[in-house]
Amino acid sequence: MRRKRDNRFLFKKGSDKLEVLNKYIIFKTGEEEYGIHIGSVISVEKAQAANPVPKLPAFVRGIMKVRDELIPIIDVEHCFYQTPLSSIEDARMIVVRTEAIPVGLLVKEANDIVEIQEEEKKQIGLAGYGRTNYFTAVASLKDRLITIVDADLFTASLEGIADIAAYMKEAAENS
């Protein structure tokens, strides 16, 4: 059994004491801003066309090789708003490692890293709603609201992700 990792906090290197960092990659999809903890993020890259695979769920754009690993590309706008991202020309891909499988999250923008303190986060009632339990809080900053997304919960909520993870594992073993 794999141990669940706790990526909520990272520690600053090179200091005499450990300082807890609550940094989030801020991304935009639809017209809203979302944050994902940097502990889950492998990289942020310019989006590229994914290799389509027939019969995958509509939110999966295809698969792509990133750092010698095949990963599915998830259209976050499709997942959140049931509308596919219209153009990937200026889009970004946030590559995250989750309990289920590493995935590429296709988003409109991902240009910002923000430190969000615990006291800036407000729990939202929608977190209890089973279909959006991956929205864990809303950060209320000076001039913006950022909805915090848990990468593990989001990926686990995707229909068919267990089948995709099994397929990707088998493909990796056979290559």
The shape, in one word, is globular
Largest sheet: 6 strands, mixed
**Number of beta-strand segments:** 13
Radius of gyration: 16 Å
Strand order, sheet with most strands: 10-3-4-13-12-11
The helix content is 10-25%
What is the helix tally? Answer: 3
Mean pLDDT: 83
Please indicate the percent range of residues in DSSP E strands (runs of 2 or more).
Answer: 35-45%
In whole angstroms, the N-to-C terminal distance is 25 Å
Going by helix content, strand content and strand pairing, the class is alpha+beta
What does this structure look like?
By secondary structure, the chain is of the alpha+beta class. It is built from three helices and 13 strands. The chain has helices at 76-81, 151-157, 161-174; strands at 10-11, 20-21, 23-29, 32-37, 41-46, 60-66, 69-75, 92-96, 103-107, 109-115, 121-122, 135-141, 144-149. It has a six-stranded mixed beta sheet. The protein has a five-stranded mixed beta sheet with strand order 5-8-9-7-6. β8 and β9 (103-107) form a beta hairpin. The longest helix has 14 residues, at 161-174. Residues 1-11 and 16-20 have low confidence and may be disordered.
